[in-house]
Design goal:
The protein is of the alpha/beta class. 31% of the residues lie in helices and 13% in strands. It binds flavin mononucleotide (FMN). Belongs to the NADH:flavin oxidoreductase/NADH oxidase family.
């Protein structure tokens, strides 16, 4: 996609002429068959309030609070199978009960005119045997253990045999079909933050010697086979993927993250998927920001032919500039949206924001820190 600065110039010009400026972040965007009314996306946010891996009725209010007509929402990470979980009370989408539980939540988002994608997830080795069927070891690309972090301990993983990989790909395919059955408009394949897909993609984790290890092409094979299977099942224009080549969440570093990001952006074009959602290099992990040179997702944005979503550490001004300078089509907001259910409205008015309280990001209360953040009026 061509980068041009025309819209940014117009924006500054109009602002300086004291006319009501058009806010680039709040302009409409056509994402495939979806007519979005603005470019602010609810980032996927794990909230750990889905008791026993079943989405709960309180999520109806939570997601509908964050819905605006023509706004895009991405669900919290949602497990694809009984081996996909690594945390307590995260939702799944592999059983009939789980699919049914999502339906009223999706309906509520649609009733307010939102577009809702389900983030489908397998944690791989970021797990412990207590979350695994029959107390088995978590599965991964490797048997290298993960060091304890953020107060969590992990069971050393078991390296998947080559002949077991098709089964895991099939789990993603069925989860995608289930998401459509639940009413979601599409799925976002979770290929970020050190979880199973990244455990294959990144060379500091993947130490395989079969066709899923070694060269960049081999390391990306698993993720691309997941994409291919999901595309075949639900159609390319309902499929997005999230990638974080630069972050080192859960010990998932790569020796050449830019090459990895570019390889994936180009390879994804072959499948004609709807969007590529990438996490900014300034994110050290899922939530910590570090200093780094700007614009570094631009090569991937230019390489990828579909809709590009950027995420990680954006505020109002940053988001406006990124869209105005055509560095991205859409911007996903995590923590600001978590704490401000009416974030697009607040950005439109340049109104003050509620502060987020990280103490209850991951607590299990159905209201506190979840649906009790106030609206403007
Ligand atoms: C409470 C919390 C839960 C998160 N859960 C997920 C998740 O389920 N899936 C995911 O891809 N990223 C997850 N992230 C990362 C966010 O989607 C986002 O990339 C990150 O918060 C940085 O963006 P921000 O600066 O706008 O918050 C989570 C972040 C937070 C703070």
């Amino acid at each position: 996609m061509a980068i041009n600065n025309t819209s940014l110039c117009n924006w500054h010009q109009m602002a300086s002429e004291h006319e009501t400026p058009v806010i680039p972040l709040l302009t409409p965007y056509k994402m495939g068959n979806f007519n979005l009314s603005h470019r602010m996306v609810l980032a996927p946010l794990t909230r750990m309030r889905s008791y026993d891996n079943v989405a709960q009725p309180h999520a109806v209010l939570y997601y509908s609070q964050r819905t605006s007509p023509g706004g895009l929402l991405i669900s919290e990470a949602t497990g694809v199978s009984d081996s996909a979980q690594g945390l307590i009370h995260t939702p799944g989408i592999w059983t009939k009960e789980q699919v049914e539980a999502w339906k009223p939540i999706v309906n509520a988002v649609h009733a307010k005119g939102g577009v809702f994608f389900c983030q489908i997830w397998h944690v791989g080795r970021v797990s412990s045997s207590v979350f695994q069927p029959n107390g088995q070891a978590p599965i991964s690309s490797t048997d290298k253990p993960l060091k304890p972090q953020m107060g969590m301990e992990f069971t050393p993983p078991r390296r998947l045999r080559t002949d077991e990989i098709p089964q895991i790909i099939n789990d993603f395919r069925i989860a995608a079909r289930n998401a459509i059955e639940a009413g979601f408009d599409g799925v976002e394949i979770h290929g970020a933050h050190g979880y199973l897909l990244e455990q294959f993609m990144k060379d500091k984790v993947n130490d395989r010697s079969d066709e899923y290890g070694g060269s960049i092409e081999n390391r990306c094979r698993f993720a691309l086979e997941v994409v291919e299977a999901v595309v075949k099942e639900i159609g390319a224009q309902r499929v997005g993927i999230r990638l974080s080549p630069f972050t080192e969440h859960s010990d998932s570093g790569d020796s050449d993250p830019k090459a990895l990001g570019l390889y994936m952006a180009n390879a994804l074009n072959k499948y004609n998927i709807l969007y590529c959602h990438m996490v900014e290099p300034r994110m050290k992990n899922a939530i910590e920001i570090v200093e780094c040179p700007h614009h570094s997702l631009v090569p991937m944005r230019k390489a990828f032919k579909g809709t590009f979503i950027a995420a990680g550490g954006y505020d109002r001004k940053d988001g406006i500039n990124a869209v105005a300078e055509n560095r991205t089509d859409l911007v996903a907001y995590g923590r600001l949206f978590l704490a401000n259910p009416d974030l697009p409205k607040r950005f439109g008015l340049d109104a003050p924001l509620n502060k987020y309280n990280r103490e209850n990001f991951y607590t299990h209360d159905p209201v506190i820190g979840y649906t009790d953040y106030p609206f403007l009026e």
